[in-house]
Design brief:
This protein has 3 helices and 26 strands. It is mainly β and 365 residues long. The chain has one domain: TolB, C-terminal domain (Neuraminidase, 6 Propeller). The N and C termini lie close together (6 Å). 50% of the residues are buried.
Length: 365
């Protein structure tokens, strides 16, 4: 579903940061400054607010079921299902599994949602509470399978059965949300990528092993098993990193900067192998070639006010000044909220730009 014209993306880098630690790997090469882009394949005008009643709460990511139903994370319900006609309903019976949302002191933050290799189960990571939920899409039942001491941004199960997840920072209730945004305000190096070895059938996951440490806000990631690669977004570091991954052991090697990206967020790998990476501060979604790092703007809703906020964000980062106060409507307008990713339907069909607002943007293929 990708258009054939490619443009190099305008991605303003953040301030220079200390490199993340990884076991037995070399330091990454210095990334070249990206060139400026003139236009994007999709714009806000190509889409429509979905659902039209704007009844979602923080739909950060999601998946599309075989019948076209979009299932997104939702701060109130855990997961919410949106039918093709825009009708919504709670999905997965999270309340029965012990899910609670108790703002303002102890909010839940369902964040990353991804299919397991069986195509039946969904993993849902909670970036505020550290809970990892598993939802059966055939029975619509949910189980909490792991509790991390800090928030989990995104989780993925590989073909060996191992569980991988990112810890953006050391945020925990109460005050988890405040601590999370503090890690976006000024650089902190307590982000991690962790892995839980495969468990026996039916067994709950064991203790995690730290695979990557020292990350400045670890965020979304993708494991490309055909290439033997792992790609991870380091949001405050301002880039997407690439590693060679050994699935049997979890070891990473050949660390490199695949592409510089301003505030990279979700990383989704489309059916053609291309990486789709959201840039909330740029109000864009980028498409990155996993082999070369060549990058184009796939979607942009950036305005003049947003571009000015982005430039100020860069200036403050270079000066070592706080930046979180810039995360306001000037950045994400006309989108419903900060852009965090794109949801593709397998086999083609509409794409959905996700974010931290009250709706998606639906773009017809």
């Amino acid at each position: 579903m990708h258009r054939t014209i490619f443009w190099t993306v305008a991605a303003l880098g953040l301030a220079a940061c200390a490199p993340a630690a990884v076991k037995d790997t070399a330091a990454p090469p210095a990334a070249e400054a990206p060139a400026e882009a003139a236009e994007a394949a999709w714009t806000f005008d190509d889409g429509a607010i979905f659902p039209a009643d704007r009844s979602l709460t923080r739909p950060e990511s999601g998946v599309v079921l075989a019948d076209g139903t979009v299932v997104v994370v939702d701060q109130v319900n855990g997961l919410t299902a949106i039918s093709p006609d825009g009708t919504t309903r709670p999905y997965g019976n999270f309340a029965a599994a012990g899910f609670t949302h108790l703002p303002p002191d102890n909010p839940s933050g369902p964040n990353g949602a991804t299919f397991e290799p069986d195509g039946r189960h969904l993993l849902v990571a909670d970036v505020f509470t550290g809970a990892l939920w598993r939802t059966d899409t055939q029975t619509e039942t949910t189980t909490k399978i792991y509790q991390h001491p800090f928030g989990i941004n995104y989780a993925h199960r590989d073909s060996t059965g191992a569980l991988w997840f990112t810890q953006s920072t050391e945020n925990a209730p109460p005050g988890s949300e405040t601590r999370l945004f503090a890690a976006l305000d000024m650089p902190l190096t307590d982000g991690k990528l962790l892995r839980i070895a495969p468990a026996a059938d039916g067994a709950l996951p064991g203790a995690p092993e730290e695979i990557l440490t020292g990350l400045q806000f670890a965020n979304g990631f993708a494991i490309d098993e055909s290439r033997g690669k792992l790609f991870i977004a380091e949001t405050v570091g301002g880039h997407v990193l690439s590693f060679t991954v050994n699935l049997a052991t979890g070891a990473l090697s050949d660390r490199a900067v695949l592409a510089p990206v301003t505030t990279p967020d979700n990383v989704e790998q489309a059916e053609d192998g291309m990486l789709w990476v959201a840039s909330p501060m740029a109000n864009q979604v980028l498409e990155i070639n996993p082999d070369t790092g060549e990058t184009r703007v796939a979607f942009s809703a950036q305005t003049e006010a947003g571009a000015a906020a982005l430039a100020e964000f860069k200036r403050r980062g270079e000066a070592g000044e706080p930046r979180a106060a810039l995360l306001g409507p000037d950045v994400w307008s006309p989108m419903p909220g900060l852009v965090t990713g794109v949801i593709h339907r397998p086999g083609g069909g509409p794409a959905y730009v996700s974010g931290l607002g009250d709706a998606l943007l639906k773009i017809e293929d």
